[in-house]
Design brief:
The protein is of the alpha/beta class. It contains four helices and eleven strands; from the N terminus they run ββββαβαβαβββαββ.
Length: 182
């Protein structure tokens, strides 16, 4: 595990980079598939990272609080598929174990992570209905795996967007394991 802090490559106001990626259900997903959602949360996650494992129930819980026309979460795994505990078969096991309620997609060639500027897991990107980046950063204030969240930053941001408000802080670096590059 290499503890890493996200950097802001994709700037606030940037359009969400397009993708076509295979999910754990073997379907192909693109941004257009989620066009009805008012808010889109793209989170770079993986199977082995203790930061992801500590926050995955927060992500599942966040999706559960909103219907999919309000918020759509998308998980993307950009780790080298040959890395221990990674790859599509391990993603399917992770999906089942944590009962993910959102698509979990594989970025085998790591191109999507590079286009978003993702460097760690989890690394969340929040987009409005026009698919413009409004927030890149922490899900909550629990920055270490054993921390308990007291402030639910992402949930508050989603509620703000759905109410027609603006996000005050567009970047608050997330912390997690480094993406395992090929």
């Amino acid at each position: 595990m290499v503890k890493t802090e996200s950097t802001q490559v994709l700037k606030t106001g940037a359009v969400a980079p397009q993708f076509e990626l295979k999910g754990t259900d073997n379907e192909i997903y693109s941004l257009e598939r989620f066009g009805k959602s008012k808010v889109l949360l793209v989170v770079f996650i993986c199977n082995h990272c203790p930061y992801v494992k500590a926050r995955i129930n927060d992500i599942v819980g966040l999706q559960s609080k909103f219907n999919k026309t309000e918020l759509q979460v998308i998980g993307i795994n950009s780790n080298d598929p040959a890395y221990d505990e990674e790859g599509i078969e391990n993603m399917k096991k992770f999906y089942e174990k944590y009962q993910l309620n959102f698509p979990y997609l594989i970025d085998e060639i790591q191109d999507i992570a590079r286009r978003y500027g993702a460097v760690c897991t989890p690394d969340p990107y929040l987009f409005n209905g026009e698919r413009l980046l409004v927030y890149h950063g922490r899900l909550n204030d629990a920055v270490e795996p054993n921390s308990i969240a007291k402030t639910h930053i992402m949930e508050d941001n989603v509620k703000t967007l759905l109410a027609g408000g603006k996000i005050r802080n567009g970047f608050d670096p997330s912390i997690g394991c480094s993406i395992k590059w090929k």
